Amino acid sequence: MIMGEETLNKIRRVLLYTAFLLAAFFLSYFVAYPLGYSPLGYEVVEKQENTVVVQSLNTWGFEEKRITYQPPEEEEWRQAALVDRIEGQAMEYHLFFTAIMVAIFWVGMDVMKGKPLGKVLVLSCFYVFFSGLSLIQHLGDINEILEGSFY
């Protein structure tokens, strides 16, 4: 049985999409983990028994200010929660960067197919929306712990 040209084009397209998704996944992994790029994020600078020194990062991922966090008496669990959240933010950024790259890819593919750019941009926002929302919530949890309003 010989495959038709249409079937081969579909297989090529699926392979192209799969290759791009893998490339986006690995590139965003490299940006989030080894490079540690986390704009508006935090990093643990020093951890002691009763205090944690946290470095906040600006929009470009550069150091902004140091925050020394000491949990209230009888609530030492907050320190562990803060460190866990900061260590988990790389995963959130990995998902966010992957979603952005996939959205850019789909915008390019749809525009090349002749679809209107406005419609494509609106639909591509949904790729990024949920991962962005999760990232914002995660960073908000870290900020709430630092401000002392996390329960």
Describe the 3D structure.
This protein has 151 residues and is an alpha+beta fold. Helices cover 63% and strands 13% of the residues. The chain has a domain at 22-38 and 76-147. It is built from three helices and three strands; from the N terminus they run αβββαα. A three-stranded antiparallel β-sheet has the order 1-2-3, with helices on one face. A hairpin with a 5-residue loop joins β2 (52-57) and β3. 17% of the residues are buried. The mean pLDDT is 91. Keywords: Membrane, Transmembrane, Transmembrane helix.
- How much helix, percentage-wise, in residues? 55-70%
Binned strand content = 5-15%
Q: Return the structural class.
A: alpha+beta
- Uncertain runs are none
Strand order of the largest sheet: 1-2-3
Helices and strands in order:
Layout: H1 5-32, E1 42-47, E2 52-57, E3 63-69, H2 77-112, H3 117-147
Antiparallel strand pairs: 1-2, 2-3
Helix pairs in contact: 1-2, 2-3
What is this structure, in a nutshell?
Helix content is 63%, strand content 13%. By secondary structure, the protein is of the alpha+beta class. The protein has a domain at 22-38 and 76-147.
